[in-house]
Each structure stands twice: as structure tokens, then as C-alpha cells.
Backbone:
């Protein structure tokens, strides 16, 4: 199963981190020699996540933990074609 891990911080919220990851994947897709099918799947998951997610809700969920010094990880995945996420605290 395809999963993407994103680590927001106080200086870069989950939306900012997801956009940066999407841009990096798109840059890699344009470069020769990469596994384009796998990168394409990652790009599609991030694209749908960026278009359909309530980032205000995610910021509210993670911000308090970040302020308290916790590391927050969002794991993105597809479930029946729908983007889902898990928030994991460490």
C-alpha cells in the first residue's frame, strides 16, 4: 500500500509540507531515470489530498501538539480511491 509521511512543524503547517512534497515529486517526474509509475502514484495521492482536505481542521488537530514540543507525523494513504490520513504523535 502506498503511504506518504509528512512532518509539519510550527514553521510549516501540514498544507505547506504537502505542497512542498508535491512540488518535489513533480520535479522528480520531470527528471529522467526515475520510477515514473511510483512517483505518479505519489503525485496523484498528494494532489487529491491537497484538493479535498480541510487543512484548517488538520492544523487545529496538530498545532497544540507541536506547541507542546511533540513530533507530529501525518501518514497519507488511499482507501478505496479516497485519500485518508492518520496523525501519529511521537
Residues:
Amino acid at each position: 500500500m502506498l503511504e506518504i509521511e509528512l512532518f509539519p512543524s510550527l514553521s510549516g503547517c501540514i498544507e505547506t509540507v504537502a505542497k512542498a512534497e508535491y512540488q518535489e515529486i513533480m520535479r522528480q517526474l520531470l527528471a529522467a531515470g526515475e520510477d515514473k509509475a511510483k512517483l505518479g502514484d505519489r503525485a496523484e495521492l498528494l494532489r487529491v489530498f491537497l484538493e479535498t482536505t480541510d487543512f484548517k481542521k488538520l492544523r487545529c488537530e496538530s498545532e497544540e501538539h507541536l506547541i507542546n514540543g511533540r513530533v507530529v507525523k501525518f501518514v497519507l494513504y488511499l482507501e478505496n480511491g479516497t485519500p485518508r490520513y492518520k496523525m501519529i504523535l511521537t
Observations:
- The chain has one domain: 3-89.
- The CA atoms of residues 25 and 71 lie 24 Å apart.
- The longest strand covers residues 72-79.
- Residues 14-30 form the longest helix (17 residues).
